[in-house]
Amino acid sequence: MFPLIDKNIELIWPLFPVGMLIILIASLWLFTLILRLKSVIEGRVKYSDVMFVNLDAMPKRVALLSRSHDNQYQQPLLFILLMLFIMHFQLQGVAWFLSSALFVTARYWHAFEHVRGNHLLRRTCAFIIASCTLWGMWCALFVTQLF
């Protein structure tokens, strides 16, 4: 796939986009934790609201971060599973790499729009791009492994 690159890199390349998603998930978790703690300390949110994840009682920014963090346990987990299959079958090629890069980029864009911009049309576009890319990759995996 990549000329003049060690064979081991070709086999473990799926770990790079997975690592980028893990950084995104960890960052959203950390920011959510910090903002929730700050809100409780400042008295804007009751401890019970945090304990029972009552997002309606939390400030808008905290609720948006929480929802964005929760959202990362949907499509990205399917993507991580896909990357494990790609590693298992030792699939290589520019299309796999570019598709995974497009998916991760769309997820970062979606998280940004969810947390900072909250522009529904742009967020929906990011979601559609990520969804179509992910399902296209799953279809390609099934086709390449079945035929």
From TrEMBL:
Keyword Coiled coil appears in the UniProt entry: no
Lineage of the species this protein comes from: Bacteria, Pseudomonadati, Pseudomonadota, Gammaproteobacteria, Alteromonadales
Cell compartment(s), UniProt: Membrane
Transmembrane segments: 12-35, 77-106, 126-144
Name the UniProt record assigns to this protein: MAPEG family protein
Predominant location category: membrane
Keywords of this entry: Membrane, Transmembrane, Transmembrane helix
SUPFAM superfamilies reported for this sequence: MAPEG domain-like
Domain of life: Bacteria
InterPro entries xrefs: MAPEG-like_dom_sf (IPR023352), Membr-assoc_MAPEG (IPR001129)
Gene3D superfamilies in the record: Membrane associated eicosanoid/glutathione metabolism-like domain
